[in-house]
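Protein modeling request. Please complete all fields; requests missing the sequence field cannot be processed.
Requester role: graduate student
Desired output: 3D structure, C-alpha cell encoding
Chains: 1
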Amino acid sequence: MRHFSGQLSSPRYLKCLLWFLLSFGIAQASPIGKWQTIDDQTGEPKSIVTIEEIGGILQGKVTRLLGKNADTNPLCEQCKDDRKAKPVLGMEIIRGLKKVAGADFWEGGEILDPAIGKIYRVKLQTLENDQKLEVKGYWGPFSRSQIWLRTN
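Delivered output (152 residues):
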C-alpha cells in the first residue's frame, strides 16, 4: 500500500484545489433567488422579486410588497400587454433572460416597471460575491440601472 502523506500539501496540489474552489464559486454566481428592490425616489425597500430558471430561461415575479405606504393589492393599470389591470403581487415582471455563453451576465429578455407600465430590454449581472444584482433596463439608446440586494 502506497502512502500519500505530504503530497496533499504540495504547492501544485494546493494550487489545483484553490483553482477548483474559485472556479466552482464563479460558476455558481447566479441571479436565481430572492431580491429586495429599492425605490429610486425614496431609497426605501420596495418589493421582493423572486427569480427562477425554467428550461434555461429566467423569469422574475413580485412575491412581496414592502414599505409603510405600500398598497396591499395594486393593479398594473398602465400595463399594455397581458398584465393590464392584473395584481402586481405575483406578477411576472422579468421574462425571457438567458445566460450569455462565456460571460457572467444574463440578457435577451425584458423587465416591466409596473408603476408606469413600461417594458425595457434588460441585462442582469451579479456583483459582490453574488449578494447584489445589477439590473440594467434599456429603452432605445437610453439605459437605467438599479442595484437589488439578495435576501432570504
